[in-house]
Amino acid sequence: MPVRVHAVGMRSGTDAAANRAAAVAAVEDAVGSGAGPGTALVVLPEYAAAFDPRGVTPELAEPLDGPFVGALRAATAGSGALVVAGTTLPGSRPDRAVNAVVVVRDGDVVAAYRKVHLYDAFGHRESDRLEPGPADAQPVVVRVGGLTVGVMTCYDLRFPEVARRLVDAGADVLVVPAAWADGEHKADHWTTLLRARAIESTAYVVGAAQQGRGVTGASCVVDPLGVVLAAAGGRGADDDASPGTAAVASLDPDVVTAVRERNPSLANRRYRVVPGAPVASPAGPDGPGRTRC
Q1: Which terminus of the chain has a lower count of CB atoms within 10 Å, N or C?
Q2: CATH (one of 3.40.50.10490, 3.60.110.10, 3.10.180.10, 3.40.50.1460) for 3-264
Q3: CA–CA separation, 77 and 80 (whole Å)
Q4: Is 126 a catalytic residue?
Q5: Is 293 a catalytic residue?
Q6: Residue from 62, 115, 131, 220 carrying the catalytic annotation
């Protein structure tokens, strides 16, 4: 049975109550759009609960039993909808938080993913404020309709191994909540990487993006051949799409099956992703890179 997905753009700020209201409105709009019980997938951006483009701090964190997740649970109760949303959890120390994605269905929290790859690139350093999730944690995959949804977030998109682990765990849809930082070439990187992960994984890819200042925006849904099925928002601070604007598309498990029959690249692989295996850092001016774990 096809699944109707809403990849929702948001302009989350530091006002937690306003962010909750916007998230609930987006979920209620998706659930009430005629998708039908058990067929709605709603993806909200990274940091949907609270966002500061200068850097999310531990002060914006709240636990899984806090008001943001509680609001999502209430909004999904009895709906059959699956909601994937970015939040920030308290860390192991008062000066650290955890970038996380929560998965809620029918009023229950069914999974939580803690971001493995912190965004220490392009002049940003999430590791100054956040702690990473465990690299050897089990991939987060959840069934909805006839599809299996795999969860990653934002900077994870630059690491094809993340997508491959999720596909190896059964995913045929990859969801990517993001607050994709703006800058030269960054908007192009976002859409190109979403399409690349779809093509190499022969899977649907759903990117839900923060909009406005400091980010690129541009939520979109990509099919297993890399074709963009729907898009909404974009252009960073000049984004004129209303908050809550969604890229909406139908995800069909039969399409995944057909594409994987025509292009059996997953079955033809001769390598597998091994979490925890040594990783060689890129070679620098002093010679070959070092091997690290």
Answers
A1: C
A2: 3.60.110.10
A3: 7
A4: no
A5: no
A6: 115
Q: Tell me, what's the pLDDT at 192?
A: 98
Give the residue ranges of DSSP H helices in the chain.
Answer: 16-31, 67-76, 160-168, 186-201, 253-262
Cβ neighbours for 267, distance < 8 A, ≥ 6 positions apart? 260
Identify whether 186 is a catalytic site residue. no
Please tell me which residue in 62, 126, 131, 154 is annotated as part of the active site: 154
Residue-wise pLDDT for 123-144, tens only, equals 999 999 999 999 999 999 999 9
Q: Which tokens in the block code for residue 100?
A: 């996380």
- Which residue has 């002093």 as its token pair? 286
Report the predicted TM-score, pTM, of the whole model to 2 decimal places.
0.92
Tens digit of each residue's pLDDT (9 = 90 or more) over 254-271: 999 999 999 999 999 998
Residue extents of the structural domains in the chain: 3-264
Q: Residue 238 has what DSSP assignment?
A: G
> Over the Cα atoms of the chain, what is R_g?
18
